[in-house]
Amino acid sequence: MRGRFAPSPTGPLHLGSVYAAIASYLDVRSRDGQWLLRIEDIDPPREVEGAAELICRSLDSLALNWDEPPLFQSTRSAAYAGALDTLRHRGLSFDCGCTRRHLRAEARTGPEGFIYPGTCRDGVPVDRTPRAVRLRVTPQVIRLHDTIQGEQSQELSSEVGDFVIRRADGPYAYQLAVVVDDAWQGITRVLRGTDLLGSTARQVYLQQCLDLPRPDYLHVPVLLGPNGEKFSKSAGDTVDHIGRRASALWCFSLDLLGQRPPPSMMKEPVSTISQWAIRYWQPSELPCGKSIGWSSVSLAMHRWGIASD
Ligand SMILES: [Zn+2]
């Protein structure tokens, strides 16, 4: 079994990403699996200088040890270009000249954003210039079993539409990169937050189009902050200086993952806590909703002495 943690270097880790990293780590380590690190640095304007190193140091302080050197997506352009070529040769992609302004005027909006109306499927209209590349989506229901969230299904053509695989401003789209890299790294298990549940069907569809294997998917509930929105780097919910708080962060995460660490655990070094957690990991106790509200999050922060800063 091979799992992975795949942060974007847009800032330090936040409480929600520490919790997700620990969940993914325990999920594979408790089964003697390997845990890999991928830095999703394909969107330079959003990246913060030094964030990748900071994330690696934070994972180190948490004793979340990865196998194999980290994979940087910025080094993978040739692989993404190859996948794009394959899709083009198979007649599965097309150029799109629609801007956001066009889409606002012409497209319906679904849970995942604009539902592409198919304007450029048979050629870019003469008054538009090719900008992005989209994947041609055929009408079919994508079904998958999520180990935590249960049966999931999405009718891609009506709920999402042909989606972007290479963006107008240049970078390959997240959906394409993640599918190519999961296969390249031999990932068999993807544990991440429910904020990415809605994009899983697109990834499964891309795997079908590229003849790539499908990993098992597990989506843990995301943690919500006081404003009812998920924790994020942009909201300033980052966890700097993990060092002295590492044990508390472990206990906090285990608590929210339903693992009941004894109170004395907080005085132990992280290596001891992680060994305990690997040994007593109870997947059946994982929370199964879409999110964990601020009242539970703040209670756990209080219990383990993590100040809200
Ligand atoms: Zn278009």
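^ zinc ion complex. Residues 174 and 302 are 36 Å apart (CA to CA). The mean pLDDT is 94.
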